[in-house]
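Exam review. A common question shows you a sequence with its structure tokens and asks you to describe the fold in words. Practice with the pair below. Do the first one on your own.
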Amino acid sequence: MTPRRRPADRLVRSYVVTDGRAHPTRNTLDLVTLLIVTDDLPLTGLNPEKRRIMGLCRPGTLSVAEVAGHLSLPVSVAKVLIADLMDSGHLVTRAPIPAARPADARILQEVLDGLRARL
């Protein structure tokens, strides 16, 4: 009995999608790097995966990990495609908003004391 193929199984190998490249042109992409589509550049000349990335990111921002998940591609492959789109000016990136650090209780007490002194 032949194993049943899942929809996520790819008919095209990952190295074909990236034209044989294994590393992105930039080393600035993290899993949580946010991707933003730039002004309406033409999509002519983009392969289907790059067009799909543009379609996924057009309504809003997505992270590198989310794009890889939606495309059912390894993150390393998604990074190569995303870097290509950055190089062509189709995408820009933004670092995610850092998690807020808890405030120092001493500083908060000084602010509270200062406010009380003014009232």
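Now try the second one, then compare your answer with the model answer below.
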Amino acid sequence: MCRSIKTLRPPVLPGEATEDDIHAAALQYVRKVSGFRAPAAHNREVFERAVEAVAEATAELLGSLEVRGQAVRQTG
């Protein structure tokens, strides 16, 4: 899908994902599915809301994952 989105969970990421890591992945995802690198002014608000929603869902996912029986704690 989007090759510039990296895996954000340990042990693949050598530490916890930061808010910046999560936001960058969300931005890449929204860019890919919308087909826009930068939205036009009339689409900017909905684009930014989508990035925020994807970032929140990603943070929730990472905070809830269990890897080898242990919860993966993300504080980003």
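Model answer, second protein: The helical segments are 19-34, 44-64. The chain has a mean pLDDT of 86. Full marks require stating both points clearly.
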